[in-house]
Structures are given as C-alpha cells and as structure tokens.
Amino acid sequence: MTPAGAPGHLATLKCGDRMSDAEITEFGTTADGRPVRAVTLRSEDLTARILTWGAVLQGLWLKGVAHSLTLGSERLADYEGPMIYHGSLVAPVANRISGARAVLDGRELTFEKNHAGRMTLHSGSAGTQTKVWSLAAADARRVVLSLDLADGEGGFPGNRHVEAIFEVTGATLRLTISATTDRPTFFNATNHSYWNLDGSATWQGHQVRVAAEERLLTDAEDCATGEIEQVAGSAYDFRSGAAPVPGDPPIDHCFVLSRARRALTPVMWLTGQGGVTMEVATTEPGLQLYDARGAMRPGRAAYEGIAIEAQGWPDAPNQAGFPSIVLRPGETIHQVTEWRFLGI
Fold it and tell me: What φ, ψ does residue 41 adopt, rounded to 5°?
C-alpha cells in the first residue's frame, strides 16, 4: 500500500547496475530551470522519499502509521524558500561559524555573514542544501547521491566530492555521508530533518531522552562560546527522559556525545504520544536539537517538529579543544546516522 503523501505517477528505471528497480519520479523544476527528482525507497516497514534537491529526506512513513514522521512538502518552491533546511543535508559546515571567519594552517578564511550579521550559518548560500545533487545509483532500498563543490565556493577551500547514501532495512533508515578534498578544508555535515511522530500541530507531548552528560553553552545568537556545562540539575537534563514544553526551555543547543567520531552508537530516543519511538544512532560527537520556534512550513505554526542534527561540534575551527573538523587530501570522512523505529 502506498502511504498518504507518497509519490504517484511512478516511473521505474532500469539501467544496468546503477538504476535497478529504482522508483524515481519528477518532483519539480527549480526557479532557475533545473529538474529535481524524487527517489522512493521501500523496506518491509518503511517508505522513504529522497529528493535530489538538497539531498532532502522529504518524507518517511512507518507501516501502520498514516502520516509522515518527518515534516516535508510537496512543493519544490517551499524548499527553495522557507523550508530550505527541512530534511536537507547541510554541508560543508553545518551550524554556526563565529565571525564568519576561521584560520586553517595559518591562513585566514572568510565566509558569508548570513546570520545575525556577524556569523555563518549552515555554510551560507554555498551550502549543499541549495544544490541539485546527481543521482549516482539507486534501487528499491538504496539511493546514492553525489555532489562536487568547487574550490573557494563560499570561502571554503578545496575541490570537494560529497556522497550521501540513504538505505532502508526493516524499520531502520541509514544515512552515510562521505567527503574527500584536494586541499585542506573544513567539513561537518548533518541531516536537518524535523520530526513529529504524532502528525500533530506541534511536538508537544513528545518524550525526549538524550545520552549526554554535557552541552555546549551559547551566546545570544546561539553560537557556541567554547564553554561546556554539565546538564545535571538543568532544564536540559534529558538523560532519563523528559517531556519539555515547546519553548520552555528554548532549545537550540549541541549536546556533547563524545570527544571524537566513534563507532555507531545509540544517542537519542524520541517517543510520540501515539506510541511510536524513534532511536537515533550516530558516529558523530555532537547532537544539535532545535525546537523549530522560527522554522515554519507554509500555513503551519512554530514548534511543529523538533530538529535532530547529528554532527561535529559547532564553531569547532574557532574553539580550542573542540574536536577538529579539518579534512585533508588523502582522507575520507565517513559520517553515519541511523533512525530506528522500535516496538512496531
């Protein structure tokens, strides 16, 4: 059965080993005339739809649940506008860079000041969320998207090759992000999906549990200050599970999972009032949570879903002691995140 909101007018492509039994549909055309496609992946329990625009996770349907568990749109124009971060793969550097500058190997780099007039957010207009990715390979359960970023674009050095692999197995969606470069550069990617497991107007009533003893402190513009605080005794202590009220406390913080990239590890559990539980596992040392107070879908209100962003620590290039996000020639970064649905 095709879930509500899943793609119609299906065209199955078969091209040797690269497009075997892939479900691919046209999703729309960008404002500057580039075609965008949607690829639908199916397992026994999950249906996921991925866009070539921004490597967006446009929808995720669990067997027996009528609504998508992640917030998306059927309109490409929404993703080019107010929903630029909904479901997108954000790179080369997710989150904030203070002062829109950083020093790499003794050379000062400057970036676009697209946030609060003084810092860089999600790589600015050079971010991968604004790109049409190439469809490199696909089949019924797996899609490979690739993207080349030019040396110097947005101030980031290196000709970089980025690859995103989405795959579904049973009740698990897995994302693997890989990147290489021909010059030293910074790289810290994330998926920026917003989640509401109940299909409700807000994420009110969701239980949040995060396996983090610490969080990064931030300034008035939510940029990391370099300070690290124990969550014990604070409103951000989600270690044993809590049901925070949207906006109280305000949430736009990076929770400290580890001091370096590590083996794939469960780090967060989100449970809706309807009983659906999503376990998030990642290799990344940080988990940014954002309450969506300023991220509305057209016609919807604030706090509709909660953003869960597995990533390196924000502003790492400017904060001594933060885990490095430097990528050098000859290296390949691999970031893995899984969304696992329990108790189905």
Answer: -110, 145
Contact between residue 192 and residue 79 where contact means Cβ atoms under 8 Å apart: no
Beta strands per DSSP E along 150-305: 160-169, 172-181, 185-186, 190-191, 194-195, 207-210, 214-218, 224-230, 252-256, 265-271, 277-282, 286-290
Of residues 111 and 22, which shows the higher confidence score?
A: 111
Q: Tell me how far the alpha carbon of residue 163 is from its chain's centroid.
A: 14
Name, in order, each residue with C-beta under 8 angstroms of 44's C-beta and a sequence gap of 6 or more: 63, 170
**pTM of the predicted protein model:** 0.94
| Closest C-alpha among 339, 275, 331, 333 to residue 309 | 339
Half-sphere exposure of 141 (CA within 13 A, CB side): 11
Query: What distance in Å separates the CA atoms of residue 209 and residue 201, rounded to the nearest whole number?
Result: 21
- Residue-by-residue DSSP string for 87-141: T-EE-SB-SEEETTEEEETTEEEE----BTTTEEETTGGGSGGGSBPEEEEEESS
Domains of the chain: 11-342 (2.70.98.10)
Residue tagged 């909101």 (tokens):
5
pLDDT value for 17: 44
